[in-house]
Structures are given as C-alpha cells and as structure tokens.
C-alpha cells in the first residue's frame, strides 16, 4: 500500500483516538469538573507505567521486526508468535503487580485505580504492532471508528453527574481493551501457526530492552508530569493540564501520524540497502511535517483564549495559559518525530536516540520539581516545553551530517512568515468576535485559507523573481553582443 494511503489511514486513526474522546470534553468537563477529570488522568498515568513495563519496547521493536521480515511469511509468523509470547509473559506479570499495588499502596482513588486494570488487560492482548509492521492501517482505523463511537454514545447516555466517575472510567477502559481484543480477528490468513521455542522467545528480550530504555525517558515527560501534579499539587490541576495537553496532542496527531507510517517503510528501505531512497523519504517527510506543524502551533496559540471558555467551561480557564505555553512543542515534536522515529530508530542508532530522550527526561523531571509546587499545571507546561527543546536540539546534532539544512531553512522561514500572518489575523478575529463556537469556526476556516494562500503567494513571488533573474541574464548576454 502506498505511503499516501497509509498516511491517510493512520491520520484518521490518530485523529479518531484524540478527537472522539475530545467530543465528550464539553460534556465531561462540566459533569465531572476538574477534580473528576484529574482523578481519571492521575490514575491513568499510574496504570500507564505498568502498561509500559509490560510492553517493554515490543510495540516499536515488533513494528520494525515485522516490517523487515514481511516478505517471508514463515519468518514473519515466527517473529510474531515469539514476540507475542514474550509480551504475554511480561504483561501478565505487570498486571499482577499493578493489582497488588492498587490494593495495598493506593489509598485515595483506589476504586478508580482498580477499574483502570481493564485498560491494562488491553495491553495483554495488543497486537497492533503487527499490523503497523505490514502497513495495514485500514483495519486499525475501522476498529477504532466502531469502538470509539460506541464509547462516545455510552458516555452521553450513562455519565450524568460527578458521582458517575467510576462509570466513565469503565467506559474509557473498556474501549482500550476491546480495541486490542478485536484485532485478533484480522490475524487469520496473515500468519501461519508455527511452533516457537522458549529460546526463540527470549532472543527478543534484549532487542526489546534496547527500545524500552529510551521509552523510559519518553514516559517521564509524557506521563510523569501528570503524576507529579497529582502528588505535589492536586487532581484539579491535573485535569487542567490534561485537557490542555489533549488539545495539543490532537493537533500534533495530524503530523505524527506520518511518523508511524514511515517507520516500517524506512526500516524496510534501509534493510534492502536503498540508502538514497531513504534519505529522499526523510527530506520530504521533514518538509511536509514542518508545513503542517507551524500553522498548527500558531493556530492553537491564537484560538486558545476564545476556544477554551465555550469548549470546556469556566472551571478550565487556566488551561488557556497552559495550552499557549505547550503550543511550540507541536513543531518541536514534529521535528523530533522525523529525526528520531524516521531516521535514528529504523537505522538502529539507539545510542543517539536514547541520549536525546534521556536529556529531555532529565530536564523535564528537574523542571517539574522546581515549577509544579509554585505554579501547578503552568509550571508543568513550561517543563514540557523545556524538555522538547532539549530533545530536538540533541537529535539535530546527531542528524546534522545527513540533512542539508541550508536547503530546509528557507522553506521553514516561508512557513513561519505565513504562520505569523495567520496568527495575527486569528487574534484580531478573536478580539472582535469574543469566545464562541462561531468564533472558533471562523478562525479555523480563515486560518487555513490565509496560511496556504500566503505560502502560495511567497512561492509565486519566488518563482517570478527567478524568471526575472533569467530574463536579466538573457538581456545581459544580448547587450554584450
């Protein structure tokens, strides 16, 4: 399947994962309030550590391994079963340890923490890495459309008041569990039933650990901030940060979905020795990611003040500041997604990738310790921004010899110029129209038109300049005769 189709399918997948829950935000934020939203996010952050320990890097490693062996069905099947049995052993162990932890060590919100066990069961049955590896994104999209729509309906029907937080948690966790379970139906005919030995299973432990180690750092600055806000501040601050972060990640999913598509393609391209082709993919991907990320950054920052009041309600006004601070991370994560996911990981440059994410994790953890207590969710947002700056800078250092930045910088400046024009216009519209759904609709529509029209104008001017330059050269030759 072509990269364009896979990108489209994965874009739909990523946006669905983010948008369908966000459709419920105006409702859930007003029903559960920041404390309820924060309690769910806080307990979900704890269960995510155990899910992460259970999967142990198999999601990324499995994606790459399946992609590299997909031309040999028997070998691919052996890889699948040996990887999955390793995952099964690890996730079941993690599940048991989590249940013990929730019963004996979590005092506040214990009932919600125990309900979160359902989502951990989803990790036990997760085999989505196989479908990513064979670049079959359509099945994943279909699965998510059905399950997410059902969960959406269930939330509106069953969640009516703050005391319905356990019901909301069950719905959200069941959607994760069923999404993983249903994928097993699609495995039929795609793999062979083969026997694998314990030795074969354990051969994947070390490579998985290699992908797991940088993942520890990613976990620190994707999840730890919510846990630390809950411990140092309170669950309401967790809710304020979490919902602002959800909006940021929804915008980012438009860009990062390309990275998920490109990882198996890049791994396969490198595996067959087509280095120049891989380099071509990388440069095109970087340009495309920048083209999309810059307007998303400016757009999110520009509409925050008028968007959040009508969307989340007055209890979440603090999320405006948090979202504006987080907006630049959209561009930073788009770039690090290209450098890390599409180059360093497929090429096996794990030391460089690990160095970048650990540098970010250290900065994030230290900044959280300093900033969360006095500033709460706003402090955590500054810590996240600092971490992303560090990750991107370190990865830029490692890819500096590969990417001809002198060819990329001019285009990036065009995009920044167009984004700035868009930002100023959106802010003017926001001040004139005030906070409303109509304002947001007008801002989004005009923002898209103005941004891409500005780029088209710049490209036209650039092209005309080149034409005039060539005409000048011809005239100069004519005069010299």
UniProtKB/TrEMBL annotation:
It is a multi-pass membrane protein. It is found in: Membrane. The keyword Transmembrane applies. The chain crosses the membrane at residues 7-28, 40-62, 83-106, 112-134, 141-159, 165-187, 208-229, 249-267, 288-308, 320-345, 352-372, 378-400, 412-429, 435-458. Its main location: membrane. Keywords: Membrane, Transmembrane, Transmembrane helix. Pfam families: Polysacc_synt (PF01943). This is O-antigen/teichoic acid export membrane protein. It comes from Sporolactobacillus spathodeae.
């Amino acid at each position: 399947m072509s990269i364009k189709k896979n990108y489209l399918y994965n874009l739909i997948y990523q946006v669905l994962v983010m948008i369908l829950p966000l459709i419920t935000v105006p409702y859930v934020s007003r029903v559960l309030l920041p404390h309820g939203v924060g309690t769910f996010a806080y307990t979900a952050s704890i269960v995510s550590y155990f899910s992460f320990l259970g999967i142990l890097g198999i999601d990324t490693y499995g994606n790459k391994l399946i992609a590299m062996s997909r031309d040999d069905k028997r070998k691919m099947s052996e890889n699948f079963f040996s990887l999955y049995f390793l995952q099964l052993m690890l996730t079941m162990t993690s599940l048991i340890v989590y249940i013990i932890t929730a019963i004996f060590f979590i005092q506040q919100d214990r009932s919600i923490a125990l309900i979160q066990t359902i989502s951990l069961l989803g990790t036990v049955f997760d085999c989505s890495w196989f479908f990513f590896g064979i670049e079959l994104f359509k099945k994943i999209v279909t699965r998510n459309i059905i399950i997410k729509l059902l969960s959406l309906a269930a939330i509106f029907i069953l969640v009516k008041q703050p005391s319905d937080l356990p019901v909301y948690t069950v719905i959200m966790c069941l959607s994760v569990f069923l999404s993983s379970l249903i994928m097993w139906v699609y495995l039929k005919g795609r793999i062979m039933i083969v026997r694998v030995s314990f030795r074969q299973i354990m051969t994947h432990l070390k490579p998985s650990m290699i992908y797991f180690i940088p993942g520890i750092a990613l976990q620190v600055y994707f999840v730890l901030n919510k846990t630390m806000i809950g411990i140092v501040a309170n669950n309401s601050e967790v809710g304020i940060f979490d919902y602002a972060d959800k909006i940021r990640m929804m915008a980012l999913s438009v860009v990062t979905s390309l990275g998920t598509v490109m990882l198996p393609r890049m791994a396969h391209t490198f595996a067959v020795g087509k280095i120049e082709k891989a380099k071509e993919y990388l440069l095109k991907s970087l340009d495309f990611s920048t083209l999309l990320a810059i307007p998303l950054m400016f757009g999110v920052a520009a509409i925050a003040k008028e968007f959040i009041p009508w969307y989340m309600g007055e209890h979440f006004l603090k999320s405006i500041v948090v979202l504006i601070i987080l907006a630049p991370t959209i561009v930073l994560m788009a770039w690090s997604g290209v450098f890390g996911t599409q180059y360093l990981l497929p090429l096996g440059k794990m030391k460089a990738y690990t160095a970048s994410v650990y540098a970010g994790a250290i900065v994030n953890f230290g900044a959280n310790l300093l900033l969360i207590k006095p500033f709460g969710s706003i402090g955590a947002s500054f810590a996240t921004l600092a971490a992303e700056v560090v990750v991107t800078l370190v990865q830029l250092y490692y890819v500096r010899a590969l990417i001809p930045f002198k060819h990329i910088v001019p285009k990036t400046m065009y995009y920044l110029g167009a984004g700035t024009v868009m930002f100023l216009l959106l802010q003017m519209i926001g001040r004139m129209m005030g906070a409303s759904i109509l304002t947001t609709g007008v801002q989004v529509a005009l923002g898209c038109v103005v941004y891409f029209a500005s780029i088209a104008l710049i490209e036209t001017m650039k092209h005309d300049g080149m034409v005039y330059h060539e005409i000048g050269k011809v005239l100069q030759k004519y005069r010299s005769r």
